[in-house]
UniProtKB/TrEMBL annotation:
Subcellular localization(s) per the UniProt record: Membrane
Any GO molecular function: zinc efflux antiporter activity
Transmembrane regions: 7-28, 34-55, 75-94, 114-134, 146-165
Keyword Repressor: no
All residue ranges annotated as the Cation efflux protein cytoplasmic domain in the record: 210-285
Bilayer topology annotation: Multi-pass membrane protein
Native species: Pedobacter kyungheensis
InterPro entries reported in the protein's UniProt record: Cation_efflux, Cation_efflux_CTD, Cation_efflux_CTD_sf, Cation_efflux_TM, Cation_efflux_TMD_sf, CDF_Transporter
Protein's recorded name: Cation diffusion facilitator family transporter
Sequence ranges assigned to domain Cation efflux protein transmembrane in this UniProt record: 8-202
A single BP term in Gene Ontology: intracellular zinc ion homeostasis
Length: 328
């Protein structure tokens, strides 16, 4: 069994056990804020189940119908999880607002506080584990599930603090007020998760990754690599695809062009950047490129080298040769 599958199974089992514990705490106390935490745990279980299926599907090999693999399902999984969190938050706000107007008695808060505190600690440990595994395995699903559990931890901490205040002050309506505030935080967390997953589904560029790739190319650039432009990144679950155009001397034969492109591929995949599949288009150089070209023994040079153009993300993502950028 893969590391990702073990991690998501652990998350699902823990979510079920903690959900049962929180509902037990609610039946003991009758606390509206504890019910809020328990209701969010239902979302954890549903989201964890869907995440398990998405992890299973994303690890399947490419086929004729899915030439880029099945990794994008992880973004869809994160989107569903975010929507579920949003719905749970809205329901919590409405119910807690009603109980704020029509409060009801609560009891045995000490036992309930202890149970919620323990569940929050467990969620924090499992959440941090999922985030670390998700980053290591480049799994958006595991990271989303881990962040969800950390959100659950923060709400549990807030609820524990609120329950302690209720016991100290005997102000019952604090229970519902706290639940409303936690509900708004849950809605905000669901929005952030949904926003990130939609960005992935829409192939939103990962600018941090672009910076890493450009830094590697700039530090190890070869003289024939006159410029790099139209660089784009695309993620399919754990798989990464990079497209770019590279300007090479127009008199290079096909074997030499292939060798230069292969060196770029090897460079990116061996220098700390995430393993990626590259699609590199070779462009022929033009006389306007001469003033920033490093080919000192070029047989067709029409102008002397004047200054190197430093590759930056802002330059390489444009679909223009560097001299065209200078004209803007």
């Amino acid at each position: 069994m893969s590391v990702k599958k073990r991690a998501i199974i652990l998350s699902l089992v823990v979510s079920i056990l903690l959900m049962l514990a929180k509902f037990a705490a609610y039946f003991i106390t009758g606390s509206n804020s504890i019910l809020t935490d328990a209701a969010e745990s239902i979302v954890n279980v549903i989201a964890g189940s869907f995440a398990f299926y998405s992890i299973y599907l994303s690890t399947q090999p490419r086929d004729e119908n899915h030439p880029y693999g099945h990794g994008k399902v992880e973004f869809f999984s994160a989107f569903v999880e975010g929507i579920l969190i949003l719905i749970a938050g809205v329901i919590i706000i409405f119910k807690s607002s009603y109980n704020l107007i029509y409060p009801h008695a609560v009891g045995q808060l000490l036992e309930g506080t202890l149970i919620i505190g323990i569940t929050g600690l467990i969620n924090m440990i499992v959440g941090l584990y999922l985030i670390n595994v998700g980053k290591d395995q480049h799994s958006i699903t595991l990271q989303a599930d881990g962040k969800h559990l950390l959100t659950d931890t923060y709400t549990s901490v807030a609820i524990v603090v609120g329950l302690i205040l209720i016991q100290l002050t005997n102000i019952i309506w604090l229970d519902s007020l706290l639940s409303v505030l936690v509900g708004f935080y849950i809605v905000y967390s669901g929005y952030k998760l949904t926003r990130g997953s939609v960005g992935g589904l829409m192939d939103e560029s990962d600018f941090t990754l672009v910076e890493e790739v450009v830094e590697v190319l700039q530090k190890n650039r070869h003289n024939p690599w006159i410029d790099v432009h139209n660089l784009r990144t695309q993620q399919y679950g754990p798989e990464l695809h990079i497209d770019c155009h590279v300007t090479l001397p127009y008199y290079f034969d096909l074997n030499k062009v292939h060798r230069e492109i292969s060196q770029i591929d090897e460079l990116i995949n061996s220098n700390g950047v995430r393993k990626a599949e590259l699609f590199i288009h070779a462009d022929p150089c033009l006389p306007e490129c001469c003033h920033y070209c490093h080919m000192s023994e070029c047989p067709v040079r029409s102008e002397a080298f004047r200054k190197e153009i430093v590759w930056t993300p802002e330059i390489v993502i444009k679909n223009k040769k560097h001299f065209e950028n200078e004209l803007l």
